[in-house]
Design brief:
The chain is α+β, with helices and mostly antiparallel strands. It contains six helices and 15 strands. The strands form two sheets. Strands 4-5-6-13-12-11-10-9 form an eight-stranded antiparallel β-sheet, with helices on one face. It has a seven-stranded antiparallel β-sheet with strand order 1-7-8-15-2-3-14. The relative contact order is 0.18.
Length: 295
């Protein structure tokens, strides 16, 4: 088996230790990696946890090949016990199954597509995708949060600074939804966009009237109609999309069990995509994050 490189795109050697501040390898190990045997690569991976701890490195790559990464994602989706999220802090979609619900998962080329009653998900897992963890060294992977990061060479969704009509949702995972219209809520975030998919009705009328308005001022104009109709929410990143069909709780209400979304202006104001302490190297953009089941 070919072990993946530990490189995370931060390529700078520490003067004191001679180790890379991104992957914790020595300069020699980095230079010779392509020609190393599987056994030699494995030996390097074995010593990395101790080096990470010594250097104080929090974010590090998980040593999966692309196919192993795809297998991990598929297994977590089929198991249904954990949660996959896409979005930014304050504007996020969560894909998870209800207790006893069996997600339907299929592969279409590089894409993994999953369905549960209240949500749909698609991720494109190819050689541009990396799995990183920010847990303390030695934390078992099955208990770790996993971030799927995408090389910046893969484009992210266009950034809208105001409510914008995107036309029919041609990328909807169910063909029956592709005639509905998609509206970007204009969060102005470069790593993800938060959209509503609407049929003709009060919510679509309100969104059309709010076009060109920034999210904050638009929210008071569209809020009542959106709450009344509870249209599907679509969150997209460079990795793929999550579509949430569950109802939207009223202000102060509790999110439903299973798949749901959060859209909270006070949290959006932090400007963060990932939780504090989980900053990605500049070579990558965030795609999705996996939270393991609570024990």
């Amino acid at each position: 088996m070919t072990l993946a490189s530990p490189c995370v795109g931060t390529c700078r050697l520490d003067d004191a230790t001679g180790l890379c501040l991104g992957c914790a390898r020595t300069g020699v190990e980095i230079a010779e990696w392509k020609d190393m045997s599987a056994a030699s690569r494995g030996a390097v991976w074995e010593v990395l946890p101790e080096r990470f701890e010594r250097l104080g490195i929090s974010g590090r790559r998980v040593g999966w090949t692309t196919e192993e990464l795809r297998d991990f994602v598929r297994a977590t989706l089929e198991d249904g016990g954990g949660t996959w999220t896409m979005g930014v802090i304050g504007g996020v979609a969560e894909f998870t199954a209800l207790p006893g619900e069996a997600p339907q998962v299929e592969r279409d080329g590089d894409d993994l597509i999953a369905r549960v009653g209240a949500a749909r998900l698609r991720m494109r897992i190819d050689d541009d995708v990396r799995a990183l963890t920010f847990e303390p060294a030695g934390t078992p992977l099955e208990a770790s949060r996993i971030v799927l990061a995408v090389k910046r060479s893969r484009p992210a969704p266009p950034v809208a600074q105001a409510v914008a009509a995107l036309g029919p949702d041609a990328d909807a995972l169910d063909p029956s939804d592709r005639g509905a219209r998609l509206y970007d809520l204009g969060l102005g975030r470069k790593d993800a966009r938060f959209c509503l998919r609407v049929e003709a009705g009060a919510a679509e009328t309100a969104l059309r009237a709010a076009e060109g308005r920034a999210f904050g001022p638009a929210l008071s104009r569209i809020g009542a109609a959106v709450l009344a109709e509870s249209p599907p929410r679509v969150v997209e990143t460079a990795l793929g999309r999550i579509e949430v069909l569950a109802h939207i709780p009223p202000p102060g209400g509790q999110s439903p069990l299973g798949a749901h979304t959060h859209l909270m202006p006070d949290h959006l104001a932090t400007g963060r995509t990932l939780p504090a302490g989980m900053d990605l190297p500049r070579a990558y953009r965030p795609g999705a994050m996996f939270y393991p089941p609570r024990v």
